[in-house]
Amino acid sequence: MSSWEDAYRTVPPWDVGRPQPAFVELVRAGELNRGRVLDVGCGTGENALYLAGSGFSVIGVDLADRAIAAARAKAAERRLKVDFRAGNALSLEFKDNVFDNAIDSGLFHTFPDNDRPVYAREIARVLATRGRYFMLCFSEKEPTDWGGPRRIRKEEIEATFSPLFKINSIRNEFFATRFHTNGGKAYLTSATKIPT
């Protein structure tokens, strides 16, 4: 059993029972392309369900079967249509160029260095030309005294994604968790796939 499966035996710290405010704001601001969204590392589905309720066609993928089961139950209870699937972000089971957007809420910062370029290539592969990628991750400004995932610097984001994406912005944001009152210090990255 994976550590991700174990994390969902209880309620993990990142599962706050609502969509991340940063993604709610992206939708309000009209930053996502209309159309299909891939929520990669979707957990129990709050961001995906919010997007589906906002008129997007959404597929959520997560490595943890327990998280996917919980997400499917929420979708049924809320009468929202989201295709939740178990899957690995490093080898996505989708054809090329099928999504208009991809969102990542706290997945990228879990990858070791050697998996980062693999992940960036997979996201670029499944996004349509000029598809948008939005990623929320803890920044190096967040204290490390409480443990948690690795903190990420802007330069690391740029180095990983700039070969395949135009980085539109990397802005300071907050990552809602069950440990923080107002959220942990994070970066919200907006990037557009470069036509090949």
Question: Concise description?
Answer:
The chain is of the alpha/beta class. It contains six helices and seven strands, in the order ααβαβαββαβαββ.
Strand content: 25-35%
CATH superfamily: Vaccinia Virus protein VP39
Annotation, overall tally of beta strands: 7
Strand order of the largest sheet: 3-2-1-4-5-7-6
How far the N terminus sits from the C terminus, by CA atoms, comes to 39 Å
CATH architecture: 3-Layer(aba) Sandwich
Envelope shape:
globular
- CATH class reads Alpha Beta
Tell me what you see in this structure.
With 196 residues, this protein is an alpha/beta fold. It has one domain: Vaccinia Virus protein VP39 (Rossmann fold, 3-Layer(aba) Sandwich). Helix content is 28%, strand content 29%. The protein is built from six helices and seven strands; from the N terminus they run H-H-E-H-E-H-E-E-H-E-H-E-E. It has a seven-stranded mixed sheet with strand order 3-2-1-4-5-7-6, with helices on both faces. A hairpin with an 8-residue loop joins strand 6 and strand 7. The protein is globular. The termini are far apart. 42% of the residues are buried. The mean pLDDT is 90.
Topology diagram in text:
Elements: H1 3-7, H2 21-28, E1 36-40, H3 46-53, E2 57-62, H4 65-78, E3 82-86, E4 99-105, H5 116-126, E5 127-138, H6 154-161, E6 165-175, E7 184-193
Parallel strand pairs: 1-2, 1-4, 2-3, 4-5
Antiparallel strand pairs: 5-7, 6-7
